[in-house]
Design a protein that fits this description.
The chain has 23 helices and 29 strands. It has a 5-stranded parallel β-sheet with strand order 4-3-5-6-7, with helices on both faces. Strands 12-13-14-15-16 form a 5-stranded mixed β-sheet. Strands 2-1-11-10 form a 4-stranded mixed β-sheet, with helices on both faces. The relative contact order is 0.07. 41% of the residues lie in helices and 22% in strands. It is globular and about 80 Å long. It has 3 domains: 3-209, 3-Layer(aba) Sandwich (Rossmann fold); 282-379, no CATH class; 477-655, GMP Synthetase, Chain A, domain 3, CATH 3.30.300. It has 656 residues and is an alpha/beta fold.
Length: 656
């Protein structure tokens, strides 16, 4: 049944890459998954066999060219294979966020017109069944995990194992049809459709071609020297473009192994066991890991504390230079080597990063101290800048040009330009084909020459060619006195503190800035425990006087930093409050990729914003929340509204 191996042809689609990998790396591990505490492994040849069986089963089920197949669930080989199987039969895979509520899922399923849904487990099946009351067109549901599925109506539902078994049994009828479908794929056929996070409205379906994915994967993999021997941990949402590029695009281009953790709860243990050589994490994960390290050190004995702080001092001083191949003194080399033996090596092993050769972070700005901490340990951590419409990569940092304050230079094949209003534009082989069923948005985002508006404001350093991002272009405004208002710049500085999980700054067209802050329950909760501070809930801890004093000190430290930037000194925070609840995607306040929906937050908490600007010392509020089971409720709270010290603008004072 090896239809793929016979005639791979040009590498113009993921199924073509699969055929090449099965031929060249047939006995090499392609996928691993941890289940019930045991790692299972599949070679490229075995993966090809599984994918072909799925594809034949889809043909037997009646999947036609151009059909949309929704794929929902946690990272696991079966779901990655289902995306490639969909491509093999000429269908379009549409991965959805597994934590999306039924309403969000219903919009995507209806918008793309999915005829088939492949769900990871019973939870996802239940959500699909729920939305079928309003979504038209879903003809069949396929599920991977059989647990809990015995008593369902199976007239339009099958397990993936049954689909594969049916495909194997019917291979004589469909082998030729399958070969015809995947071998006829072209560079310009659709590879995948991914939905944007929808920060300002409904998510948009981003159509990405085989050309977009393969060219971007090739260029970005060549940039960092990725190879077949690399290992990656696939734990980020499958609906996110980054995971698709890392776990499908680059994995199939280079032939490296994709490892799927057992669950979110075991992710850190699984990370240590795999020891990936290629690793991506958003800043929040690096921040959380560092917070956990520092919490553990607080509980350590005196000698361990001394050892840690002594050698971390050495690492911070010379670690980044050693990583970049720069010369350092012999004594410093000796101390750093000793530190690697006693501190850095064991710490890297604990973090699961002992083998990381290339590490990236993106999505938000990462604190310089956090960034430098990881690089000082010898981790080649870098920053990239990208978006769904670019097939991820717009800029990357070269190994010898890594800085915390830029996002690097253009990825090979990418052109950059800055518009007169400061908005960043790019053009590359990865530029998306279109927004599905949305020609107007396509035309407003991508011009006739292929230049794409990122929606971000930034500038290119003339001496280095590095790109620096200031803020979202639509969020950049002016204070009432004409000074620039760039909330993200200030929010990122606030989130550099481990105690602060999220921040939202207001001030456009106003005379001063105010802010909402979410505390990080893990970090602040551990601090409270060490200081014998009792609390019963997030709400109670968030309003504790000592917590508020700590957050105020952070805000005032940020104000001093912002004041040093003449262009943005007007963005200092005059008043703030610590919110009584975490901003939550289920409540519509954030996207599934944890981007703040600023307009919704402003509308939902308008009474608190008004109180901040009125000068009131506190405000009583009631907020609707969504519980894990989907029920709605409300919470009431009285919030302490605090003034923060600001640094006077000496030039403005002199002018006045």
């Amino acid at each position: 049944m090896s239809t793929a191996t016979a005639s791979a042809g040009a590498l113009v689609s993921v199924p073509h890459l699969l055929a090449r990998n099965a031929a060249e790396y047939g006995g090499k591990a392609a996928y691993r998954e941890k289940e019930f505490g045991i790692w299972q492994s599949w070679t490229w040849s075995q993966a090809q066999h599984e994918i072909e069986s799925m594809a034949l089963g889809l043909l037997e089920l009646g999947v036609a060219r151009g059909d949309f197949i929704a794929i929902i669930g946690r990272n696991r080989p079966q779901l990655y294979w289902s995306m490639v199987a969909a491509q093999m039969v000429g269908a379009v895979p549409v991965p959805l966020y597994q934590d999306a509520v039924a309403e969000e899922m219903a919009y995507v399923l209806e918008h793309c017109g999915a005829r088939y849904v492949i769900a990871g487990d019973q939870e996802q099946v239940d959500k699909v069944i729920e939305v079928q009351e309003t979504v038209s067109g879903i003809e069949h549901i396929i599920y991977v995990d059989k647990r809990g599925m015995r008593k369902y109506d199976h007239s339009a539902m099958n397990s993936m194992e049954d689909i594969k078994a049916t495909g194997r049994a019917a291979h004589e009828r469909f082998d030729r049809e399958l070969a015809d479908r995947w071998q006829s794929l072209t560079y310009d056929d659709t590879c995948v459709m991914l939905y944007t996070s929808g920060t300002t409205g409904r998510p948009k379906g981003v159509v990405l071609s085989n050309r977009n994915i393969i060219e971007t994967s090739k260029n970005s993999a060549d940039f960092d020297g990725l190879r077949a021997g690399d290992e990656v941990l696939a734990y980020l949402p499958m609906a996110w473009v980054g995971d698709f590029i890392f776990s499908i695009g680059q994995a199939y281009w280079t032939g490296f192994c994709v490892n799927c953790p057992e669950s979110a709860d075991t992710m850190m243990t699984d990370l240590r066991e795999i020891g990936p050589s290629y690793y991506f994490a958003p800043p929040r994960i690096f921040e959380t890991q560092l917070t956990n390290v520092m919490i553990r050190m607080e509980d350590a004995g005196r000698f361990k504390k001394w050892l840690f702080h002594t050698f971390m001092g050495v690492a911070k001083r010379v670690g980044p230079q050693i990583l970049d191949g720069k010369s350092v003194g012999g004594m410093d080399k000796l101390k750093y080597g000793l530190g690697r033996l006693l501190v850095y090596g064991p710490l890297l092993n604990t973090l699961g990063m002992s083998k990381v050769r290339v590490g990236y972070t993106a999505g938000e700005a990462i604190g310089p101290e956090i960034f430098d901490f990881y690089r000082s340990l010898g981790i080649n951590l870098k920053q990239l800048y990208g978006q769904t419409e670019a097939s991820v990569f717009i800029t990357q940092q070269k190994d010898d040009e890594v800085r915390a304050d830029t996002v690097g230079t253009p990825t090979p094949g990418v052109e950059l330009r800055i518009a007169d209003d400061g908005e960043v534009y790019y053009r590359s082989p990865g530029v998306f084909v279109k927004y599905f069923k949305n020609d107007e948005s396509t035309a407003s985002t991508k011009d006739a020459e292929g230049w794409v508006a990122t929606g971000d404001a930034g500038f290119i350093e003339p001496d280095t060619g590095h790109l620096r991002i200031i803020d979202r272009a639509k969020d950049v405004g002016k204070m009432a006195d004409g000074r620039m208002f760039a909330p993200k710049y200030v929010e990122n500085k606030l989130k550099f503190f481990p105690n602060i999980l999220e921040a939202v700054v207001f001030g456009n067209a106003r005379d001063r800035c105010t802010a909402f802050i979410n505390i990080d329950l893990t970090a602040v909760g551990n601090w409270a425990e060490r200081n014998n501070i009792a609390y019963a809930s997030y709400q109670e801890l968030s309003q504790h006087p000592r917590v508020l004093e700590t957050i105020q000190a952070h805000v005032e430290e940020v104000n001093a930093s912002v004041a040093a930037d003449e262009m943005l000194s007007g963005c200092q925070i005059h008043r703030f409050c610590v919110l009584h609840k975490e901003l939550d995607a289920d409540d519509g306040e954030m996207t599934r990729t944890r981007k703040v929906r600023r307009r919704i937050v402003e509308e939902k908490f308008a009474d608190i914003i008004d109180a901040l600007y009125s000068g009131a010392p506190e405000v009583s509020t009631e907020t609707e929340v969504t519980y894990e089971d989907g029920r709605k409720g409300s919470i009431k709270a009285t919030l302490d509204l605090r003034d923060a010290a600001v640094v006077a603008d000496q030039k403005r004072m002199a002018a006045e």
